[in-house]
Design goal:
Length: 511
């Protein structure tokens, strides 16, 4: 599941430009070369979407017209009557006609790899998330009336400019109108209480709630919330200034990265040449060592062969001398062939078996050199057959190992896909439970607001019931509601502990 930052920020007092926000409606008149507009990509401006575009004066007439009419009816002096309430608020030093919010999914790094925003699934999903967020914003915040909302797709990230008119109802006001464009009082009416210690506490709680609502919409598309710096910025102007600085730094980083890549390429080229030379030198050294070993083996073989040649020559010489002697003796005494002689005149009787044995040994020595060569050839043949058989075993083992690893990888990928599917289903269920809890809290809050004398006991009962089911997790509850619920939780815990101690005492008494 991917992660992105979820940001929700507020503009400065009366700082907004509807023409800038709705530039796709005035694209031919819009100046893209103006300072502050140069980061805009005009080829993507047609992707911008205007969700709502009403005249703010019509909103003022609709929301404050009846209150202005009642106020004027109660004024006896004509100079105190209000003719144009929007102009009156606009010229006031203490009031704002409207509030602009900036809502964004992700940052520049999340979208830098998307080349075509028309076909990018990431850009289109983010746009759909902002559309869904806008619809849920109107339901969550009935006191913040949108009159202009635009999704920008032609800057570094998809984001929503949301302009609203805050409407606060003040039935107990002694002076002035009963309905006013006050953000803090509108949020107070929606349940975000103001703090005397920290005047920004109310805004922080509202900002966090809206960022979480944006994260809930993104979770449907498989995007989880990641912490970022956006919600730490004070306003939209400061946010845009930071984004421009980030863009400049990224351009500088790209230039430096290009220089680093060039230097690395040069170093890699030098290293490759040095490595090639080193490999060649090592190969030559290995061949020289192998050649020296072969020379030594050849010299050893030559020595052995020379020794066998001497022995063979000696055997042949002995055989020839012995043969000549026997032939002379056979011819002289007419004793037949050399193998058959029995008696030799003056030499006396000769042992025929001993003579045959001697002749057999001489023949064996005479053929010994030939036998050595045949044995060496046979050894080489057998060694080559063994090497080839071993290589076959290695190839077969490698093939089996690759197939087994491929099968294991496919099984692992299958398990990961099933696990991701289960996680997404669980996340959707969690989201449904969170939305159910949010709806339940709004209902309980409405009941508590309708009967304020019972509100404290209602929140205490929630805490006591949570203790009965073994949990203490509060979803979509404010700090004051949580503190009251904790009272009920503590009372239930103390009551259970007291009953348990009483049970132990009664058991000890029975013994």
């Amino acid at each position: 599941m991917s992660e992105m930052t979820m940001s929700f920020s507020k503009g400065k007092a009366n700082e907004t430009s509807i023409k800038h926000n709705n530039r796709n409606l005035y694209q031919e008149e819009f100046d893209y070369d103006m300072v502050g507009h140069r980061h805009i990509r005009p080829e993507y401006t047609e992707l911008n979407e205007v969700l709502i575009h009403d005249d703010i004066r019509d909103v003022y007439k609709r929301e404050f017209g009846q209150a202005v009419k009642k106020y004027n009816q109660g004024q006896k002096r004509k100079d105190r009557r209000i003719k144009d309430y929007y102009s009156k608020v606009k010229n006031s030093k203490n009031q704002r006609t409207q509030i602009e919010f900036m809502v964004q999914v992700g940052n520049m790094d999340d979208y830098k790899n998307a080349k075509d925003r028309f076909t990018s699934q990431q850009w289109q999903d983010s746009k759909k998330i902002l559309e869904n967020y806008f619809e849920s914003f109107k339901k969550r915040n009935p006191n913040l009336i949108p009159y202009n909302a635009v999704i920008h797709m032609d800057e570094s990230t998809p984001h929503l400019h949301l302009n609203v008119v805050p409407v606060a109802h003040l039935p107990n006001a002694k002076r002035g109108l009963k309905v006013k464009p006050s953000l803090d009082r509108a949020l107070d009416e929606e349940g975000y209480k103001r703090s005397e210690r920290d005047n920004r506490q109310q805004w922080k709680e509202f900002q966090h709630a809206e960022a979480q609502a944006l994260a809930d919409e993104a979770m449907i598309f498989g995007i989880d919330r990641k912490k970022g710096i956006q919600n730490q910025l004070k306003n939209v102007h400061q946010y845009k200034q930071v984004m421009r600085e980030i863009e400049n730094l990224q351009e500088q980083k790209q230039q430096i990265d290009t220089q680093v890549r060039d230097k690395r390429a040069q170093l890699d080229s030098i290293s490759e040449r040095e490595l090639a030379v080193s490999v060649r030198e090592k190969a030559i050294s290995d061949k020289e060592q192998k050649s020296a070993k072969l020379d030594e083996k050849i010299r050893r073989k030559q020595f052995v062969l020379a020794d066998w040649d001497k022995k063979e020559q000696h055997a042949r010489d002995s055989w020839k001398a012995w043969g000549r002697t026997v032939e002379k003796m056979a011819r002289a005494k007419n004793l037949g062939s050399p193998d058959d002689y029995l008696v030799v005149g003056t030499f006396g009787q000769v042992d025929k078996d001993a003579t045959k044995d001697r002749i057999s040994k001489l023949l064996e020595l005479a053929g010994h050199g030939k036998n050595i060569k045949e044995v060496e050839a046979e050894n080489r043949k057998l060694r080559n057959q063994g090497i080839e058989q071993f290589r076959g075993f290695v190839r077969e083992g490698k093939s089996l190992g690759d197939a087994r690893r491929k099968k294991e990888q496919e099984e692992l990928k299958k398990r990961l896909r099933e696990q991701d599917k289960r996680i997404k289903e669980q996340q959707k269920k969690i989201l449904q439970l969170r939305m159910f809890a949010d709806a339940a809290m709004r209902t309980i809050r409405g009941i508590a607001k309708a009967i304020p004398e019972r509100a404290h006991q209602i929140w205490k009962n929630i805490g006591a019931n949570l203790h009965k089911v073994g949990g203490q997790t509060y979803i979509h509850m404010r700090k004051d509601e949580i503190s009251q619920a904790n009272e009920g939780y503590s009372e239930a815990a103390n009551s259970q502990k007291s009953r348990y101690n009483q049970y132990l005492r009664s058991r000890n008494l029975d013994r």
